[in-house]
Each structure stands twice: as C-alpha cells, then as structure tokens.
Design brief:
Blueprint lengths: L1 H13 L3 E7 L13 H13 L6 E11 L2 E8 L8 H10 L13 H14 L4 E6 L5 E8 L7
Parallel strand pairs: 1-2
Antiparallel strand pairs: 2-3, 3-5, 4-5
C-alpha cells in the first residue's frame, strides 16, 4: 500500500483532475499482501479507464476482511469501463489462468500475472474478478488469504 500511495501521489500531481481515496479497515493495517499485485490493477484503471476521460475521475482503494482467513481489496474507478466484448474476454482469461500462456507483448498481461500470483500464493479459492459499476467504470476485486507474519 505504501508503494501504491507513492505511485498515486505522483499520478495525482501529474494529472490534477485525478483523485484517489483510501478506505482501509484498520484491523488490516498489519496484514501483508503479495508484492506487485495492486499497482498493475491501479495502472489499468488509469490507462484503460481514465485515460480516455483525460485522467479526470476517481480511483478508490478499499480493503476489508471478508472471513477470518480472507480479505478483499477493491480498486474502483470512474473510468469508461469495458469496451464491448472485453468483459467476456477478461473473464475467460481469469477463469482459464492456468492454461493461458503469458505473453511478452499485448494487453492483459498484468491482469493475467496478478491472477496467477494470487492463485499460487493464496490458493485457488482466492483471485481477481471484475464488476461493472452502475455509475460507470469498473471495480477490481482481489480476494486474498490473510497472513500476518511474512510478506508473500
């Protein structure tokens, strides 16, 4: 979260119409999450959701405990949402993450890598999913196992 906050501070300085909000459950302040799973998701919100709106909008990052052994991190944006047909492609890729080869080029490599890392480090019942917001934009849902002792 500290790395993400620094990144978002830079992006908000670069794009003054960009806003960021955090809503983190205080009970999760000492919980460690896998490295390099949040920034690719936030970058997607900016590059695929808010770029076409002139980087004007909001990215809200929330974390809440959903079970004794699980937490959910949400990255919600007010961007343009999925392009037609894109939601189905992304959902299929996330479902078939184990059979989808990583590409060195092209779109969605960050999302695929995040899904593979979460599944590997947190278990098959955890992972990444997306929902479309009623008011526009997307919310990424990262379901993670809770581990307090060591970074993943």
């Amino acid at each position: 979260l500290e790395l993400l906050e620094a990144y978002m501070e830079l992006m908000c300085s670069r794009y003054p119409q960009l806003q960021v909000e955090y809503d983190i459950d205080p009970d999760l302040s000492e919980i460690l999450v896998p490295n390099f799973i949040l920034q690719p998701i936030v970058e997607n919100s900016l590059l695929h959701g808010l770029k076409n709106k002139g980087y004007e909008g909001l990215v809200k990052i929330s974390a809440l405990k959903v079970k004794e052994t699980q937490m959910e991190i949400q990255v919600c944006d007010t961007g343009t949402g999925f392009a037609p047909g894109e939601k189905d492609r992304v959902e299929a890729m996330l479902r078939n993450y184990a059979r989808t080869p990583a590409k060195l080029e092209g779109n969605r490599i960050g999302v695929l890598n995040v899904q593979k890392r979460i599944k590997l480090l947190c278990g098959r019942d955890c992972g990444l999913s997306y929902t479309e917001n009623k008011t526009g934009g997307l919310t990424a849902h990262l379901l993670l196992s809770v581990q307090e002792e060591e970074a993943l």
